[in-house]
Amino acid sequence: MTQTAHRRPGEVQDGVLVASVPANHVYVHHIAAEDPDGVERMPDPDPDDPRRSTQEAWWPPVMLDPDWIAAADFDVFHLQFGFDAWPPERLRDVVAALRRRHTPFVYTVHDLRNPHHEDRSLHDEQLDVLVPAADAVVTLTTGAAQEIAERWGRRAHVVPHPHVVDFATMDRLAAQPRPTEQVRIGLHVKSLRASMDPGRLLPTLLRFVRANPGTVLQVNGHRDLLESGGARYCAALDRPLRDAAAAGLVDLRVHDFMPDAELFAYLASLDVAVLPYRFGTHSGWLEACRDLGTTVVAPSCGYYRDQGPVVSFVNEEDRFDPDSFEQALATAVDHPGLGRLSVAARRAQRTEISAFHAGLYDDLIEAGGR
Q: What is the pTM of this model?
């Protein structure tokens, strides 16, 4: 790898160069300004050859390699995602590498509980390294910021999640009329994360559609989960879904991973989307629904209610209240388009978010890294 001269604290050359972990992620794309603003995010290094950049893949994230940090040229290191499997010792090495080069370190706390980990201990240990070490901490909601203050004594900047759906698609799908003869409730099970328990919700959903003519329950799931022989086949979920579909209670759709265009069209076709999480923090799925005018029914765990208007029900860890869920479904059906944000609103929000990040980076460079 070619060694390049590092920029000194306070020295900005042709704008700010950010090592964003990762760079190729929709969240990172949409915290950037639509027009040039002096902030450039480096492309992700190719995991197969770190000397080359890539727009295709970013896992495992090469930017979390202390040797890459030591050799690369950038002004700010901004960690978003990608450290799920790293031991705390590896993250301490990353922090030490940044300290040696006096480069500001920003950490955006998306997850206070990792949705992929049944046991929270590893993620807690990772956060115990990252949150105290960061020169600036960012998060998405006031609830998450309060928890960060309580756990680590750090003040986090609260910056809302930007749009997920691109503006042209938002405009196009908003112009398409929704069917009015039925209300479509969606439960998307895809390939199950540890945080998801759709089977817990299914009996209440079936009872609701039986009792409310004109409502349709659509369940979408991936083949690896709902086809025997799939890598993650779950008979305990597949069998009741097949039975309910045979009884005409579920519109069951089993398919491979959806490309974005197909995914957004599907979300826009729903009136209500149910989030089947029993733990977690924030949700990009929720934000995509807001982009498309689909009312979200969200669990009481995490800080989904802080992200925007949703209909909540009691569901966290081993606690689930089916009566609150049934009431939430009824409320959601009566409030179509709850929390929807227009293209104009999302565009203004993105401008504010990108300006915040540009200002934060400039302030940190001027102050110098630790």
A: 0.93
pLDDT band at 27 (very low <50, low <70, confident <90, very high): very high
The helix/strand/coil state of 18 is: strand
What digits encode the pLDDT tens for the residues 180-206? 789 999 999 987 789 999 999 999 999
The Cα–Cα gap between 271 and 331 comes to 12
Residue whose entry in the numeric block shows the structure tokens 């090592």: 19
Superfamily holding 16-162+348-367 = Glycogen Phosphorylase B; (3.40.50.2000)
Residue range 102-119, pLDDT digits in tens: 999 999 999 999 999 999
For residue 77, give the 3-state DSSP assignment.
strand
CB 51 within 8 A of CB 27: no
| Domain range 167-340, its CATH number among 3.40.30.10, 3.30.2290.10, 3.30.1520.10, 3.40.50.2000 | 3.40.50.2000
Q: Is the dihedral of CA 106, 68, 73, 101 positive or negative?
A: positive
